[in-house]
Amino acid sequence: MSETPHRYDASLAAEIEGRWQDYWERHGTYETPNPGDGDLTGDPEQAARPKKYVMDMFPYPSGAGLHVGHPLGFIATDAYARFQRMTGHNVLHTMGFDAFGLPAEQYAVQTGTHPRTTTERNITTYRAQLRRLGMGYDDRRSFATIDPDYYRWTQWIFLQIFNSWYDTEAGRARPVAELVEQFASGDRATPDGRPWQELSAVERADALGAYRLAYASDAPVNWCPGLGTVLANEEVTADGRSERGNFPVFRAKLRQWNMRITAYADRLAADLDTVDWPEAIKLAQRNWIGRSEGARVRFPVGDEGQPGQRGGGEVEVFTTRQDTLFGATYMVLAPEHPLVDTIVPAAWPADTRDAWTGGHATPAEAVAAYRKQAAAKSDLERQADARQKTGVFTGAHATNPVNGERIPVFVADYVLLGYGTGAIMAVPAHDSRDFAFARAFDLPMRCVVQPVDDRGTDPASWDDAFNAGDATIINSANDSLSLDGLPVPEAKARMNAWLESHGVGRGTVNYRLRDWLFSRQRYWGEPFPIVYDEDGVAHPLPESMLPLELPEVDDYTPRTFDPEDADTQPETPLSRNHDWVNVTLDLGDGAGPRRYRRETNTMPNWAGSCWYHLRYLDPHNAERLVDPEIERYWMAPREGMTTGGVDLYIGGQEHAVLHLLYARFWQKVLFDLGHVSAPEPYHKLFNQGMIQAYVYRDSRGFPVPAADVEELPDDGGYAYQGERVTRELGKIGKSLKNVVSPDQICEEYGADTLRLYEMAMGPLDVSRPWETRAVVGQYRLLQRLWRNVVDEATGEVTVVDPGPGAEPDEATLRAMHKAIHGVTQDLDGLRFNTAIAKITELNNHAVRLGSGRVPRLVAETLVLLISPLAPHAAEELWHRLGHEDSVTHQPFPVADPAYAIDETVTCVVQVRGKVKARLEVPADIAGAELEKLALADPAVTAALGGADIRKVIVREPKLVNIVPA
């Protein structure tokens, strides 16, 4: 029989952890009350607690389950939430699942298994794994985005957006019904000026569609025949292929739903100043929004009398350098620009150069061939900074409005239809991309900005364009305007005034941000609550018909397609369920029962994750999105949070400009319409790093199973089945054969050890390598803590109860209160690794006191300090120490300043960055006093040698840095 039957080992850890997980579930330990719940309003003490809303970016439940990299952020939020409960907060912390999406549908295509079956099975696995890790979630609030009771409200929000428009004068969204009243009363003119009552239903729908925040349009999209769906730009690789499946992606025009997120561009940018987010994420969003001030300028297009001229038009461009308009020597349209079809003549003009035609006999042939070539490229490819520019002449010319010059019009793929106006005025002397294009096609260049270097003013001799905002303008004058000699800012202002006075342009603001493409040609997504009448007019379903649930289909695949054919058109799985698509409905609009056709696209997976923070608040409300009182309690603006939101949101930085931007947009629309009190969804955002693992590759470069690799004792190399392999640090994944399951670590060490190890590996926001052998360090911390409380042989508690001669000595009190002070600050600041280091230091101090000599005060303090990080072991020790209530809701220890702060500390004094003296000073010494002491020290005086002092940097009480002149 073992001499230590009560030793803390994997077996005992498993028994303890399972028992306490059952206890927490049985007693509802982590259930969080809302306003209106009896246990909150009926308990004055509970009602007076400040709230703390803590969230994770919820996971997509893959079939592989969690690996050890996934729980990093989850453990962090759980530890933080537990700490906040112990410091007197009413904490809301739960977990849901982002369950719609392409992976489940692809698996369904391959196996014929319904996506719901596999997704729900995966969710069950995730729930079990998270429970095993001891997550303190309020499980009553959990849901998945595929639950009809959830996506009913996703569809409801879509209808709120569809039935809204953005009033630029009021600076907010308003109901479309108010817009209809303006048209009907004549306060707002219809598109063609006719009275609203004279417009047909189709014309009215088109007029409103130009304003709606959710609208359908024929838009150029990333069409992936191989996946049978359109893709967001972020889902396309730099070489123009799909991230999932590596299929070719083409540009195509499809009828798609869009969200008018561009209407909120200014507010989305401005309100970044109100949230506590990493600066890198704020910068990414600002760059994505891409606000730029400039001017819109109209160029007449068309050549009367030219061979085969079909007619003209007017091209509007946006430019941030309107001061260089005199230097525009050609124009470029995006291949998809609608005016291209109008301006292309039947034959090439007489002055067309061979290099401009692409070898084609007519402009129409040249443009058609180039458009097909451009369609095979992604936006990323088209925007790549390549020196080789491609394009073709349209055969048409435009007129530069400031000098009357006739300039050729090209199509080229480096211009995107979705940015600006899809057309540019090319000023090759002062733009690198235009410079490269002009060189490739032998186009003229004119210098209109005075170079500040010695290159001269002849662009023909330059290696690249010259572009500077602090130069002066030259060669820029006509009969009514001269910019010559002006600095750039003044030249821009004068040009704006001239453009407006002559009716050819105006100063304006533009954005890089494009409207959000909201359609997917897939089955496994939220159905749109939209039907179409026989005229093609879209009608929203009444709320009484929600949720519109996904129907059953026999086949989850897109129609038969050629993955290499850009002309393949989608046929969605829903479109083949004719009984579902074609329906007779009474929409309650007075028209009675009518025949309609349902929308057969589905929403993107981003839809469900735009608003889940709101459903956590009131998950079982069948009458409304969220109860207003509950929403205000958890989300409303308050001191330090001027735009409100979730108190702490942790997730990966890869969501900087997708989920986070979309969620902010939906929140602002709901705020404008009065459904929520907070204009921002997430106040504090924290991006956790990534846990990486070693990847081992054989001589072919193929990954081999990391678990079976052996370290060679002779030279420190590695081998797999006798063959030498290489090692590199990379992501964790099945394809790299380096997955480590958290279940495996729990089996070998226990969940608390895994939790401690992941938090102790390094700062939470820094990526770190996984090393299974290092896990044992935190395992030993728990074993030492256990021995400080429990006799391994008898199982009896060995702490010393208070009494004469049994109180902690001063050294122990100082160690304990320093630990309390440091751990409190670290847990509040998400510095879990340093908190664990301080707990370890105090635990080691207790070990040195000797077995059976640890004061109860010290033991209980240790248990309380570690409980947010290792809740199972803490709960067990807390009860063994004689307490009946859960450790979860115990007050966190409070440090006594008399013991927590050192009486004296060592201050390092540097001169020219080198240490010259060390001073013992009071821990609370003032900066001015410390500077005096440092300058008076003999060693410092000698090091200065009488030199003047330029600067003294004081970081009291531990550093003084003296910088001589």
Q: Which structural class do you get from the secondary structure elements?
A: alpha+beta
- Summarize the amount of helix as a percent range: 25-40%
Low-pLDDT stretches are: 305-309
Which descriptor suits the 3D outline? globular
C-alpha-based Rg, rounded: 34 Å
The CATH level-2 architecture of the domain at 292-510 is identified as Alpha-Beta Complex
**Biggest sheet layout:** 6 strands, mixed
Q: Considering the protein shown, what is the CATH homologous superfamily of the domain at 292-510?
A: Valyl/Leucyl/Isoleucyl-tRNA synthetase, editing domain
CATH topology assignment of the domain at 292-510: Isoleucyl-tRNA Synthetase, domain 2
Strand content: 15-25%
Tally the helices: 31
End-to-end separation: 75 Å
What is the total tally of β strands?
A: 33
What is the level 1 CATH name of the domain at 292-510?
Answer: Alpha Beta
Mean pLDDT: 92
Describe, in plain words, how this protein is organized in 3D.
There is one protein chain. This protein has 31 helices and 33 strands. It is an alpha+beta fold. Among the domains are: 47-145 and 263-290 and 605-690, Rossmann fold; 292-510, Valyl/Leucyl/Isoleucyl-tRNA synthetase, editing domain (Isoleucyl-tRNA Synthetase, domain 2); 691-730, no CATH class; 902-964, Ubiquitin-like (UB roll), CATH 3.10.20. α24 crosses α26.
Brief synopsis:
The protein is an alpha+beta fold and 965 residues long.
